[in-house]
Amino acid sequence: MNKAVLLLSGGLDSATTFAIAKEQGFAVYALSIDYGQRHRVELERATQIAHRLGAVEYRTVKLDLRCLGGSALTDDISVPKGRTADEMDHGIPVTYVPARNTLLLGLALAFAESIGAFDIFFGANVLDYSGYPDCRPEFLEAFERLANLATKAGVEGTGRFRVHAPLLKLTKAEIIREGTRLGVDYSMTLSCYDPDQLGQPCGQCDSCQLRKKGFAEAGLADPAQIAES
After folding, report:
1. 61 in Cβ contact with 110 (< 8 Å)
2. Which of 8, 70, 83, 136 is geometrically suited to a Cys-Cys bond with 87, CB 3.0 to 4.6 A?
3. Are 95 and 83 in contact (CB under 8 A)?
């Protein structure tokens, strides 16, 4: 089996991406990043997902982005609640973490090169993504070029790095249907940017609303909501 590094956040997108990578025959090495996110409970969920879905190895790397700030996910800034679909479709929200995905993919690349893997899986999505610039196909294509220019393996030609984003052009409903087909237990996942101290989702942030809309359009009940009721 070919090795693949997968960025695992604890959300439904990365869990679905994990299941897709396994179906494609990859031995998955999962990587989570503790970047100082306020919704730290997602790291607990990521650990559960990694074990449940059968990661060959699971690592967590600490990278404290709180010292840089500039985002509602790492700084003392309120997470927007109750935004309309039109508001979510325009502009880059304050939940964007400056250069986060560039840094996370850089760490995934380092992990991949260290274990002799050339495939990196990332749960980016451009349809239901709240306007983040580092979830676009242009960014992923550019990062893949960088990966093959900036590494020993790329320069020596021992392999070519590939960034896989299988959810890139799927709606949230399509993602949920695919994950359901693959047997993903979505009750383990957390999509909320501002959960309470018990890890319960707020239900009103952009991510919670997109998740709710996705399950409704997929015609399925959210098992995480059922478990909480």
Report:
1. no
2. 83
3. no
Element (H, E) at 47: helix 41-53
pLDDT in tens, 199-208: 899 999 999 9
The token pair that represents 122 in the structure block = 């990332």
To 10 degrees, the CA torsion angle through 49, 218, 83, 69?
20
- Residue 41 to residues 92, 183, 188, 190, Cα–Cα distance (Å): 24, 23, 11, 8
State the residue for tokens 């393996």: 153
CATH number reported for the structural domain that contains residue 23 in this entry: 3.40.50.620
pTM for this structure?
A: 0.95
User: How many domains are contained in the chain?
Assistant: 1
- Note the pLDDT tens digit of each residue in 108-166: 999 999 999 999 999 999 876 557 899 999 999 999 999 999 999 999 999 999 999 99
Residues 55-108: tens digit of each pLDDT: 999 999 999 999 999 999 999 999 999 998 888 888 888 999 999 999 999 999
- C-beta of residue 141 within 8 angstroms of C-beta of residue 168: no
Segments forming the whole domain that contains residue 137? 3-228
Secondary element (H or E) of residue 62: strand 57-62
Burial of 25: CB neighbours in 10 Å, binned 0-12, 13-18, 19+: exposed
Residue 229 pLDDT greater than 50, yes or no: no
